[in-house]
Amino acid sequence: MDGKIMVTYKILCKTDFNVEVSIAQLLENEKIAKVIKSEFAKGIRNIDFAFKNEECKINIETQKEHYQFEASKNDFADLVSLAEEDATTRKLFKKECVGIELVDIEIL
Prior knowledge:
- The two termini are 12 Å apart.
- It is elongated and about 65 Å long.
- It has helices at 23-28, 30-40, 79-89, and strands at residues 4-13, 18-22, 57-61, 67-72, 97-107.
- The chain has a 3-stranded antiparallel sheet with strand order 4-1-5, with helices on one face. Strands 2-3 form a two-stranded antiparallel ribbon.
- Helices cover 26% and strands 34% of the residues.
- It is built from 3 helices and 5 strands.
- It is α+β, with helices and mostly antiparallel strands.
């Protein structure tokens, strides 16, 4: 199998933040509701929120830099190990960093 794979990954650290919040949870917070009302319905009273899909979620997470490396198609099974090796050789692992997460795999 000839060809290359472009692998994109990010470094995971213990201090990373990742939480999923529903629209319903956001609107239950009085401070957030007040800001939305003052931004979109300034000067209008007796406003209430209604939404159709309560399962709509927002992810709040630490913004991470993405790194790339190129591998052979034959190395597909070892991509995680290869990404960890790439991060180690580039000295990307800092204090409190625990591993990597593959973000994208593109066949060239």
